[in-house]
Amino acid sequence: MIVKLNAQQHLLNPLDIINSMLYTYNRQLEVTMFLTMQPNDKRPVYQQIVDGIKALIAHGDLGEGKSLPSVRQVAGDLGINLNTVAVAYRQLQDEGFVTVRHGAGAVIASRTPRRVDEVDIYQPLRTALTQLVLSGVSHKEIEAAVHQELTLLQQTRSCNTEKGGAQ
Question: Does the predicted TM-score (pTM) go above 0.70?
Answer without folding.
Answer: no
